[in-house]
Amino acid sequence: MPDQIPKARSSRRSRRQRETVNTTEQKSPIHYGGYVNQIGYLTPLREDDIQRIHENSMAIIRDHGLKVLSPSLRQHLKSQGCHVDDDTMMVRADTDFVMTHIASAPSQFTLTPRNSKRQITVGGKHVNFGMVSGPPNVSDKSRGRRSSQLSDFTDLIKLGQAQNNIQLYGNQTAATNDLAVHTRHLDSMLATLINSDKVTACMSVGRERVTDAMEMIALARGITLEEMKSSPSAITNINVNSPRVLDTEMSDAALAMAEWGQATIVTPFTLMGAMAPVSLPAALSQQNAEALFVIAMIQSVSPGAPVVYGGFTSNVDMKTGSPAFGTPENALTNLASGQLCRHYGLPYRSSGCSASNVPDAQAAFETQMSLWAAVFGGANLIYHAAGWMEGGLVASYEKVMLDCDMIDSFAKMLAPIDFSPDELGFDAIGDVAPGGHFFGHDHTLERYKTAFFAPLMSDWQTFENWQANGELTAYDRAEEKWKSVLDHFVPPTLDPARADALHAFVAKRKEAIGDRPL
User: Fold this and answer.
1) In terms of DSSP H, where are the helices of 71-114?
2) Is the preceding omega at residue 268 within 30 degrees of 0, hence cis?
3) Which of 14, 200, 288, 375 could form a disulfide with 169 if both were Cys (CB 3.0 to 4.6 A apart)?
4) What is the residue-averaged pLDDT of the chain?
5) How far apart are CA 474 and CA 481, in angstroms?
């Protein structure tokens, strides 16, 4: 995959293309595989701060330990020299266990979806933005807030496919509450693989769901499961049930992913004041302890398996207990978590989140705060970058479009500045007389052909023109945009034989699973 980001004037669709988006993409010159951070990082922690957090984290693992619910995993950890109390299910480990095993984790790896042009690199200076993941509800301006259905899940997959600044999907764009619990993972993965050719995640609930996802992705790629072991395609995210509990379904899923050579993000769910102490150093220490212990556990079973350190530390509204995002505390932990990941040589996942109930100014500034800190904290994967609302309870159609416009701005910032002779504009400066203007000069017009400087939600109209054109707000324009995307959506090409194989696999697995719990 190329290391460089395309030139600035190629990284935004023209207005006409934006209004009639489809996924044929013949007109799009945008680099498929994410971006590269050319600017650097913000670093709120000093070196001795990092060392204090490290030492505190190791002490938490050694003296307090984690509760591991899986009996077989506890037995494995006991064989590795960890201190296991089966009565309390607590596992404690020394620093050597943790540091020895995380050293076998790769600092960088690639994920190759069914369209190899959309391969992404995870690690180093690479930045990849992901769609909203996990909400049980959806909302849009026309239909309001409602329980999410498969049709909503599919619409959000389509919206993500149509945005070239989205590189991956999380475990699910939104819940499929209208489907049977035991087989909905099959329908979700089928909808994803039919309507998108980007990197996708699979459900992280148990081994069987992971295996189903692996078989379906291999079918979509036209390769065997064995071949996919050496060419990872998928990722999943598991959460530690903070404080300090690792449940069986999550650990089984993580180990299954590792055995198949696929990637797992380990993300403690550490909200300060609720699932973690309210102070920043304590919350970061707990997050660090939980993430490193589970990553070490995965590596102790499958050395070299691709893993990602997930940071999801924020605070809560102490009046209600509701999660808060885009706060100064959230931004600082996003930045500091990146420093910890670089200290350990691990890829880093962060998030772009908001607790606002509607796509309003609060939603914009909270998402902007969290995205700024994620990008310049060095996150390689940014989950929930488009569409997340209401603290994760809602996926918003309009907010997907608003957030993708924001991501475009980050893409521009991450691109290297072109200092070629033509960009320095020496001749253009000489051509324009003192006191003149550059509006009509070729140097200007050539660069405006792509409408790179025209934001998606604004045509920079005067107040009078805005009134004459219907007084549309950003919310209104976002509604127009997502409807246009879905109206013009064309699924990416998939070999008919592979599509038939996917449908046949789903039908066979549904018959085999029936009503039994997985």
Assistant:
1) 71-79, 95-102
2) no
3) 200
4) 90
5) 10
